[in-house]
Design goal:
Order of helices and strands of chain B: EEHEEEHHHEEH
Largest sheet of chain A: 6 strands, antiparallel
Helix content of chain A: 40-55%
Helix content of chain B: 40-55%
Shape of chain B: globular
Oligomer: heterodimer
Distance between the termini of chain A: 97 Å
Strand order of the largest sheet of chain B: 2-1-5-4-3
Structural class of chain B: alpha+beta
Strand content of chain A: 5-15%
Largest sheet of chain B: 5 strands, antiparallel
Largest interface: A-B, 82 and 67 residues
Distance between the termini of chain B: 22 Å
Chain lengths: ~1250, ~190
């Protein structure tokens, strides 16, 4: 036997192996193809042998040849043979080959199912690994369905190596077999907390991929990911999670609020640029999702922009590139903060790296304003001149046009300048955007009436110099401009100085070399010009001149009649005959000019490009119905090539067609309008419904031209746009002076009546008036049309199928198909026939698979319907849901299902958790503690209900009742919660007068502290707000502002304290101009606006009508926090009555207790123990006598008023922890016996501790 | 997701191609050619990102590449991957190759493309990043190689002898086309270790 093997391998050693093949190919450089074909013949011979080693060697060589581009699919069966070898060496070769060349339509794949299944369950982990790797590349829907269950079992394999591969491949399985997502998801979620970092990372990877496509289904995982984010140290995982959050925040702004702080911390702390960059990116996403700006968000933006600037300034080109990329995202929502870095971005335009220049260009787009547009475009024009390479130049050109034309030419103040720019751009060689320039010229000339005179003059010069553009074949792209020029000159020929000259220019023989569609426009517009010329000449009584003109036409037009282009020919011959007829009339001395002009009378209005699409289909019109009898099969086949032809045709003559459409549409609109006007029941659309559209340029059909001319081309006689910049400067200067004068006269300056006003620019910009009275005609849209585009998602997107609600409990029918033995089926009793049948149908049989799936779906549908019904039922008759409940629970059929099915309760709990987790707005935390935070919160869920709303309505429990949480009910729930909140708030108001009141902030804290495990009785309401000052004694009917304050440390800065003050108007007058001022002490200072002195007050940013209260926040900087402090302050305000207003003043004292410097910080008991053992802490204790309250109330009180959190509680003894804003640790041990409470405390700052204890004592002495 | 991983030399000769989406052989060659043209005309000192070519991708895809002496390593990825992260990954890949081949050079990749595939399979699976820890990758690759050796056993001996003889007959294999300075500065390489 051994001999045989050795003999076999001796035979083998003279076969070529991979190395020999490679060597051979390298030695046959001249006749590589021939050599390879002999090698392939050899390989074919080798594959015919029985020896698996020989086969494997052959397959290995084939894999190499595949890389070189040879089709090896003919060897697919041999590859399967090698895959099924029992030896790992060959198996690996086989799987590698398969992964390189198998795909969904490889038919031998279905032979592999059992082999792969065997390999997956192999005792050798590398067999399994290799099979998984291979499968990941060529998995098909059938394989996915048949193997999903096996792979799912592998997700819990003992070896992490297998686990991570199994987890990762699940994504591929989901894509191919979406039904597997729901049953597999619970286990996938479990893997997020796998002890092995590799497995964890794989799970994060898969869920991120899933969530990227259908983010809303994964919102409920946000808390879990939040926890991972704050605890993980693997940058790869962190990046993935942070990217995921970027996708989730647009759906849930509350999440964004929660994220900002940990992300900011990460930005500050991380050294890894990749992580920093992703954090910045996600912060940007968060900021975009938060529409209402909270004050500290501007700080976040600043931080992002700052960090990005550092990236852009870095010498590493990669960082520079990414910095610009992220900057452009900020630009969309916060253009102002980017605009200040204009210098930097313009600098990037000079970068030698093209990608960076392109990114900088993108940014410029958003940075222009009326003020700087000319300057920026001038810079860009310089770059256009300098640029080498047509791609970059083309990019510059499109950017210039984009920048200028954005939001309906919002930033252009001088259209003469713009036209000049466009004309200058026509001098570009080799651009393929000629038609873009052309469409801009047309658009401006049509829509800005005032510019027509100028535009026509310019276009006439262009036409005159047309030979410069057409002279060179390579300049084909730019001659599109002539299209626009000819049309403008023709259409607005009444503005031409010398129409005769232009007419001659348009009829030059050279014109025949232009593309057909341009010639057609030439011919048509020559006719228009002809009409104008006739009119002028007849007016001058020079009969002969008019006849000469006709003769000119008759002489020149035959050239076009001979054109090969149908369009040109048709128009030319039509017009030729017309002119001949006119000449006849002229010879009889008949005045024809007026009649000829009538041919071209009427004005065009611009129509939005999508207008036609937006016309609603009239009722009763079925667009899909056949008008005639449908043609027979064979006919439709014949039709095919025709259709293609027609399509191409329209491509070429596209612009003309739209013209026709516009006219037609306008006509129809007119008719409809009249109809509607006469219809008394028609409600007329407001003008605002006519939305404006930007034209989307179609670039594709212009041929690419890539030749650079060494000598730049000058078009003579054209004004340089630069002079406009100067002119504009002067004009603005003058304007300003004028305006001042006018203002003195108190006359309002009337600004150019624009079709659309854009008031978004800064005020200074508003001062810039346009040079002309500019009238931008808005494009017309049909009535009732919706401007929003229908989302045309790709229906073939595989991810669409994965849009599956994951929180619904698993239905019975959803379990993954499991292979079962026929023997087992036979054993089943007849009573279980039904089961057996369904099991049998799940046996993978190709034939019936489709049917089966459909059946399943049906079943599911039915089931979900049932569930819905039941739910309703349950809502109506709470408590009586015994029957429904039974049916609702998944009936466990087999062991496999029990593994698969997730308990529904856990899912629902999660959704409500999420709601809670999110509603719990910004919670003070920082990077170290953040890890523990979500856990603490999760633990405190049960308490919150009672903590936040101690005496809420009895409908509260309804909320926590485990419901089926599909979308509907969660929505419903949200509403309900909102309602509750409102109710709560109302209550608060009522309570307010007793000064027992829950502030939002207070509620949060009590939630966080989560003091009590088992709640014997509801906690009494507590409040942090206390009366600051009140004056009711001054004037009798007067105002009373009463202030309450709540002092709370601000975590972000170790020396900042934020004081919230509620101002309430107690009188029946109007309070305004409130100013808040505090006498600064050495230690504490009120933060005032920049530039104000230390004695200036802060204006309260609101006024108080009668009966209204509002809250304002003031920030103090504090140096030392070990001692409590009192600050004296005054509030001045104006009381306004119907007839009089008086100044009033109210003095108050702000009391900064030491407790207010403490921040509730959760702490784990082991960390707590370590802290105590460390020995750095000083000891102190206090005894409270006669405290009559339950222990948990006592703890809650300490938590609430002094910002502690409970670490551990054992019977009548509890340890508590808190931290000061400057990082002092404060630990308490609270013991109670009877009415005596002893508090032993430790802190690293004895003075602070003493004061805190005093304050605690104070708290309890009050009650 | 990673859509494709390509390695080719300064002349555009493919040294490894791994597509995580199916293309016909012709398209694959075209993609390699196109990518080579895009990448090769870029200077050394420009950024390593490229908006993808016509054939591969679309707006969501980018090419991220690194150039080491004679070889280009190109990853085509979509927006779910971090750009800098992929740059790190390429570095990890090259360093792993360096460890596995002991001073890797282009010839190693030419003659042992199967081994390169096996190493890559431990890093990226089906277009998703499997492992970023170099030591872990090397451990797995080594133990699989050991298994292969033990399977070959006696039967492998003659083949090994022959291949030794073959190598002897040949002019000395040049080992000096080193893959170059693999310690190219990455802004955040430390993150993966």
């Amino acid at each position: 036997m051994a001999l045989k093997i050795v003999k076999g391998s001796i035979d083998r050693m003279f076969d070529k192996n991979l190395q020999d093949l490679v060597r051979g190919i390298r030695n046959h450089k001249e006749d590589e193809a021939k050599y390879i074909s002999t090698c392939i013949d050899e390989i074919k011979q080798e594959l015919k042998q029985d020896n698996i080693a020989v086969k494997a060697n052959a397959v290995c060589k084939l894999t190499y040849l595949q890389m070189l581009g040879y089709d090896v699919s003919w060897a697919a069966f041999n590859i399967v043979e090698v895959m099924s070898s029992s030896k790992f060496t060959y198996k690996r070769i086989g799987y590698l080959a398969a992964s390189q060349c198998f795909h969904e339509s490889t038919d031998v794949i279905m032979l592999t199912t059992n082999q792969i299944r065997k390999d997956l369950s192999s005792p050798n982990q590398y067999d399994t690994g290799v099979a998984l790797t291979g499968l990941s590349c060529f998995v098909t829907p059938d394989l996915a369905r048949d193997l999903a269950n096996d792979i799912m079992t592998l997700m819990s394999h003992t070896k992490p190596y297998i686990r991570k591969k199994a987890v990762l491949i699940m994504y591929k399985v989901f894509l191919k077999y979406p039904e597997s997502l729901r049953p597999a998801f619970p286990r996938l979620k479990e893997k997020l907390e796998d002890p092995d970092p590799g497995v964890q990372s794989a799970a994060v990877n898969v869920i991120c991929e899933l969530a990227r496509r259908n983010p809303k289904n994964y919102l409920s995982l946000a808390p879990l990911f939040f926890k991972l984010m704050t605890s993980s140290t693997n940058n790869w995982v962190l990046i993935k999670i942070i990217k995921l959050f970027g996708a989730l925040t647009p759906l849930e702004p509350r999440l964004g609020k929660k994220l900002i702080e940990p992300l900011t911390n990460l930005i500050h702390s991380t050294s890894a640029m990749s992580l920093l960059y992703e954090c910045v990116n996600t912060v940007i996403a968060v900021l975009i999702s938060l529409s209402s700006g909270m004050p500290n968000h501007s700080a976040s933006i600043q931080l992002c922009v700052q960090k990005l600037r550092i990236l852009i300034e870095d010498s590493d080109q990669n960082l520079k590139y990414l910095g610009l990329l992220a900057m452009s995202k900020i630009l969309k929502t916060h253009p102002k903060s980017v605009q200040s870095h204009k210098d930097l971005i313009l600098q990037c335009l000079d970068d030698k790296d093209e990608s960076i220049r392109l990114r900088a260009l993108d940014l410029l787009y958003g940075m222009v304003s009326k003020k700087n547009l000319m300057e920026i475009v001038k810079k860009l024009m310089l770059h256009v001149d300098k640029a080498e390479g047509t791609t970059y130049r083309d990019e510059l050109l499109t950017k210039i046009i984009d920048i200028c034309s954005q939001s309906n030419y919002q930033y252009i103040t001088n259209f003469e300048w713009y036209i000049s720019i466009l004309v200058e751009l026509t001098r570009l060689e080799g651009t393929r955007h000629g038609h873009l320039i052309a469409s801009q010229m047309l658009d401006v000339a049509i829509r800005v009436k005032a510019i027509r005179v100028f535009a026509v003059a310019q276009m006439a010069t262009l036409l005159d110099n047309a030979h410069l553009m057409t002279g060179n074949v390579q300049r084909k792209g730019i001659c599109e401009v002539l299209y626009a020029a000819a049309w403008i000159c023709g259409e607005f020929s009444e503005h031409l100085d010398n129409p005769m000259q232009t007419l001659e220019a348009m009829l030059r023989p050279k014109v025949a070399t232009l593309p057909g569609h341009i010639q057609a426009v030439y011919v048509q517009n020559a006719a228009k010009l002809f009409a104008t010329v006739l009119k002028n000449q007849e007016g001058n009584t020079e009969g002969t001149a008019a006849q000469e003109t006709s003769q000119l036409m008759i002489d020149r037009l035959p050239l076009f009649v001979q054109s090969a282009n149908l369009e040109v020919q048709e128009r030319a011959s039509c017009i030729l005959q017309l002119v001949k007829y006119i000449q006849k009339l002229q010879q009889k001395d008949v005045e024809v000019a007026e009649e000829v002009n009538a041919l071209f009378a009427g004005e065009l209005n611009p129509v939005a490009p999508k207008a036609q699409k937006k016309v609603p289909v009239p009722e009763g019109l079925d667009l899909d119905a056949w008008i005639n009898e449908p043609p027979s099969e064979s006919e439709s086949e014949d039709e095919q090539p025709k259709a293609i032809f027609a399509k191409e045709e329209t491509k070429h003559s596209r612009p003309r067609h739209t013209e026709v459409d516009e006219k037609e549409l306008a006509r129809r609109r007119e008719v409809r309008k009249q109809e509607q006007a006469s219809n008394p029941f028609y409600i007329k659309a407001s003008p605002s419904s006519q939305k404006v559209y930007q034209e989307a340029p179609g670039v594709d059909h212009i041929p690419v031209v890539q030749i650079d001319l060494s000598v730049p081309l000058k078009v003579p006689g054209l004004p340089m746009s630069d002079q406009y910049v100067k002119l504009e400067e002067e004009r603005r200067q003058k304007d300003r002076v004028d305006k001042k004068k006018k203002e003195k006269k108190k006359r309002k300056e009337k600004r150019g009546g624009r079709g659309k006003k854009h008031d978004s620019g800064p005020e200074s910009e508003e001062d810039i008036t346009p040079a002309h009275m500019v009238d931008i005609v808005t494009e017309e849209m049909p009535e009732n049309a919706l401007p929003s585009d229908d989302d045309d998602k790709d229906p073939n997107d595989p991810h669409k199928a994965l849009d599956i609600d994951l929180d619904k409990p698993l239905a019975d029918s959803e379990k993954l198909p499991v292979r079962s033995h026929r023997a087992a089926e036979a054993l089943k009793s007849p009573a279980e026939d039904g089961d057996a049948e369904s099991a049998a149908s799940q046996e993978p049989k190709k034939k019936s698979s489709k049917e089966k799936r459909e059946k399943k779906k049906d079943k599911e549908r039915k089931k979900s319907k049932d569930e819905k019904k039941k739910k309703k039922h349950r809502h109506e008759e709470k408590g009586e849901d015994l029957l429904g409940g039974h049916a609702d629970e998944p009936v466990v059929q087999s062991e496999e299902t029990s593994e698969v099915a997730a308990p529904p309760a856990s899912n629902t709990a999660e959704v409500s958790d999420l709601d809670f987790w999110l509603s719990n707005a910004p919670v003070p935390s920082n990077s170290q503690e953040a890890a523990t935070l979500p856990a603490a919160e999760a633990a405190s869920v049960p308490e919150t209900a009672s903590g936040t709303a101690p005496d809420s309505e009895p409908d509260e429990p309804k909320d926590t009742e485990p419901e089926e949480t599909d979308k509907k009910s969660s929505k419903h729930k949200k509403k309900k919660q909102k309602k509750e909140k409102e109710e709560k708030e109302k209550k608060k108001k009522k309570k307010h007068h007793h000064h027992h009141r829950h502030s939002d902030g207070g509620a949060e804290e009590s939630v966080q502290n989560g003091t009590v495990e088992e709640e014997e009785e509801p906690l009494p309401p507590m409040s942090n707000y206390c009366l600051l000052a009140e004056n009711s004694y001054i004037k009798m009917m007067m105002e009373d502002a009463d202030q309450e304050n709540d002092i709370q440390g601000n975590l972000q800065d170790g020396s900042q304290v934020v004081v919230s003050v509620i101002f309430e108007n107690k009188c029946d007058s109007f309070l305004k101009s409130m100013e808040f001022n505090v006498l600064d002490s050495l230690n504490s200072k009120l933060q005032r606006a920049e530039g104000s002195g230390p004695h200036d007050g802060l204006t309260v940013p609101f006024q108080l009508p009668l009966g209204v209260s509002n809250e304002a926040r003031f920030v103090f900087t504090v140096q030392s926090i070990v001692m409590p402090q009192k600050l004296k302050g005054t509030l001045t305000f104006i009381v306004k009555n119907e007839d009089s207003s008086t100044h009033e003043k109210l003095d108050f004292k702000l009391h900064f207790t030491c407790s207010s410097y403490l921040i509730t910080t959760p702490c784990y008991s082991d960390a707590f123990a370590k802290l105590l053992e460390s020995g750095d802490l000083k000891c102190s204790s206090v005894k409270l006598e006669r405290v009559i309250m339950p222990f948990h109330h006592l703890l809650a009180r300490i938590c609430f008023h002094h910002h502690f959190s409970v670490v551990e509680r054992v019977d009548s003894c509890a340890s508590m922890y808190s931290r000061s804003i400057q990082g002092h640790h404060v630990c308490l041990l609270v013991k109670t016996s009877g009415q005596t409470v002893t508090i032993d405390a430790k802190c690293d700052e004895p003075t602070l501790l003493g004061n805190v204890l005093d304050e605690i004592k104070q708290t309890f002495s009050q009650c | 997701m990673i859509k494709a991983i390509l390695i080719f030399n300064n002349h555009g000769k493919p040294r490894l191609s791994k597509f995580y989406e199916h293309y016909s052989e012709d398209t694959e060659q075209q993609i390699i050619r196109e990518t080579f043209h895009l990448v090769s005309k870029r200077d050394e000192n420009v950024c390593n990102f490229l908006e993808g070519g016509m054939l591969i991708g679309g707006s969501d895809y980018r090419l991220i590449y690194r150039h080491y002496a004679t070889l280009y390593f190109v990853f085509c990825v979509d927006s779910s991957e971090s750009e800098l992260g992929i740059l790190d990954l390429i570095q990890v890949f090259v360093e792993t190759l360096d460890k596995c081949f002991e001073n890797v050079c282009e010839l190693d990749l030419i003659f042992h493309v199967d081994k390169v595939h096996n190493i890559l399979a431990e890093m990226v699976m089906g277009g998703m990043v499997l492992e970023t820890n170099m030591n872990e990758i090397i451990t797995q690759v080594d133990s699989q190689n050991k298994m292969e050796k033990s399977e070959a056993g006696i039967a492998g001996a003659p083949a090994r002898a022959v291949s030794a003889v073959k190598n002897m007959n040949l002019p000395e294999m040049p080992r000096n086309i080193n893959i170059g300075d693999i310690s190219i500065k990455v802004p955040n390489l430390s993150s993966f270790k």
